[in-house]
Design a protein that fits this description.
It contains six helices and four strands; from the N terminus they run ααβαβαβαβα. By secondary structure, it is α/β, with parallel strands linked by helices. The protein has a four-stranded parallel sheet, with helices on one face. α4 links the parallel β2 and β3. α1 packs antiparallel against α2 and α3 crosses α4.
Length: 171
């Protein structure tokens, strides 16, 4: 109501149309409030809420770039221990460095860990699962984000004889 004080002066002086201006200002303020509420609810959506994930373990495949890296950062900021399951160690370590830089003090460096995984290789997936079972033991896995994927324009075959797109995205 503070912005309406200058208009109140006009009403007090008896200026013609002053009451109309006050009513118009109130209407526009209410209209703006309603439009803002509609925008927040239906266009922008609800605000992101954090969850306490301390003590939880998450695996994110394809975590070295894009959505995988951002997902890893969000999970770590919420307290989870995040395993970045990627093919290339150098790219994964660069992703960890960037995540720690972006998050500042929100993430402890011990929360992020690189484990090698090529999801197009059934052997690599089996080795990863065996290593995880051995290291995690009874603590297990709390969150799995299957983010890794490819879109190849030409037919490629993996070392195991599987079509690369199917092996990476579906098997």
């Amino acid at each position: 109501l503070l912005p309406l004080l200058p208009l109140a002066v006009f009403v007090e002086k008896g200026e013609p149309g002053a009451v109309f201006l006050v009513v118009l200002a109130l209407f526009l303020a209410w209209d703006g409030f309603i439009i803002h509420r509609i925008w927040r609810r239906f266009v922008v959506g609800p605000r992101f809420e954090t969850v306490d994930l301390r003590g939880k373990t998450a695996i994110v495949t394809g975590a070295n770039t894009g959505i995988g890296r951002e997902t890893s950062r969000f999970l770590a900021e919420m307290g989870a221990k995040v395993i970045l399951a990627c093919r290339a160690q150098a790219r994964a370590e660069e992703a960890i460095r960037l995540i720690l830089k972006e998050a500042g003090t929100k993430i402890d460096p011990g929360q992020l860990e690189f484990w090698p995984l090529d999801v197009s290789s059934l052997q690599s997936v089996g080795d990863f699962a065996a290593t995880f079972q051995e290291k995690a033991g009874h603590n297990g896995l709390d969150i799995l984000i299957n983010n890794a994927g490819v879109m190849l324009n030409e037919k490629m075959v993996t070392s195991e004889g599987l079509e690369a797109t199917m092996a990476t995205n579906h098997y």
